[in-house]
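Q: Hi! First time doing this. I have a protein sequence and I read that you can turn it into a structure. Is that right? Here it is:
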Amino acid sequence: MSTANSFNATNDPIPFPDFTKLKIQRPFTNVLEVVLNDSKGNRWNDVLYNEFIECFRIIPSHRDVYCVLITSSAKHFTVGLDLNWAMSSGLVGTTKDKLDVARKSLRFQTDLAFMQKATDLVHQCPVPVICAVHGGVIGMGIDLITSCDIRYASSSAFFTVKEVDIGVVADIGTLARMPKQIGNQSLLRELVYTGKQFTATQAQQLGLVSCVFDGDEALRQGALQLCQEIASKSPVAIRGIKLMLNYEMSGKSPQDLQLMARVLNGSLAQTEDIGKAGMAFFQKKKPTFSKL
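A: Yes, that's right. Below is the predicted 3D structure, encoded as structure tokens:
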């Protein structure tokens, strides 16, 4: 059987294991929902990191998934890092082992690189990833949502880049991605230097979230409607668009971007989806696209 870390020659979807802190749902045929499912606030520890990374390693093998939605079943989207686990494992604070500073640093770098995979795999996911957040979106929560394509929030949501309050730098993705998503550098620096809490309305004004809903159920329905709309488009076009948007965010020059566009469209523009979409437009019908 193929695993998330092996070559999948058959192109068969890799089955999701029985996660303990995640729940996998299919609200629609081509939409996958990943639910953070820990009633204790979705604290990020070794278990949640391992399960989340495994989940997003498996998702690309499911070629019938055209859009992914991340939600939470708990009171909060996530309360952030599990400090008890982080301190006992030596990720934060001091450790009792007698390794010298360089060796401790190398071990920490390895652990941190693994934790960063949780957000990197969301960013690199070949299909759009939407997050719908409510309650607290704290610390690692900001790392996670800034790796998503689109962010929706309930009016109950509140946000904070909390790492500064425990004496660490937000290093799982927030400081790499958030500056590209918020235009107000002065306010951004104020928030990350102070750990100030801000509301869903303020997050929308900043550009961190694109839509705020009045209540958690309205949020879920709005997010599902968006996912369904994206999943109805050409899967070839959607994957190509995400690839180009991510490529642009990598800081490439305009010349590199133009070359990438020519190479990408040189292959994707030959898809049958263009003809199907054009015909459906003139017939005023919804197009139906072949599976990937």
